[in-house]
Amino acid sequence: MTEQELVKIARQVQNNAYVPYSHFPVGAALLTAGGNVYTGVNVENSSYGLTVCAERNAVFKAVSEGETEFQAIAVAGNAEGFTFPCGACLQVLAEFAPQIKIIVCDTQNQTKTFSLSELLPQMFLL
Ligand code: THU
Q1: By three-state DSSP, how is residue 88 classified?
Q2: Cα 1 to middle of ligand 1, angstroms
Q3: Phi and psi torsions of 115, nearest 5°
Q4: Which of 3, 26, 78, 123 has a 20 to 30 Å separation from 111 between CA atoms?
């Protein structure tokens, strides 16, 4: 699976985002160590704080299916420039995959890849 292929999946699933409040759809595609892909989208709620980001939904779907080892996650949003995962999602990724690669893209699907420790240098781990 190439980075571009993972970004393409994140871009496709972005269409399923439930975003009546922010109108900011995000798609995520999480690649497991074994090569499976779990997708996620942001799901908003009229009680705004209950919203769950695309990245966390992808992680929780994967973990719910018994997958806990991840090699990469691609994130696709419509921000100007690149859409980065929020701090809460980075911390959730740290729980399972401190070495994960994070692939962000712009609206032209140009990519940049970061390590988790670049984006969350002092991650909290017990
Ligand atoms: N959001 C994500 O799904 N992932 C991110 O990386 C950043 C923010 C969502 C939360 C909310 O539904 C919308 O984007 C605007 O904040």
Answers
A1: helix
A2: 25
A3: -85, 160
A4: 123
Going from the C-alpha of 38 to that of each of 46, 56, 107, the distances in angstroms are 26, 11, 21
Ligand 1, atom 14, residue with closest C-alpha: 24
Give the global pTM.
0.98
Give 14-50 pLDDT, tens digit per residue: 999 999 999 999 999 999 999 999 999 999 999 999 9
What is the best residue among 30, 39, 47, 53 to mutate for testing ligand 1's pocket, by most ligand atoms within 8 Å of CB?
53
Non-local CB neighbours of 90 within 8 Å, separated by 6+ positions: 102, 116, 119, 120, 123
Tens-place pLDDT, residues 50-94: 999 999 999 999 999 999 999 999 999 999 999 999 999 999 999
CA 17 – ligand 1 centroid, Å: 10
32 alpha carbon – ligand 1 mean position (Å): 22
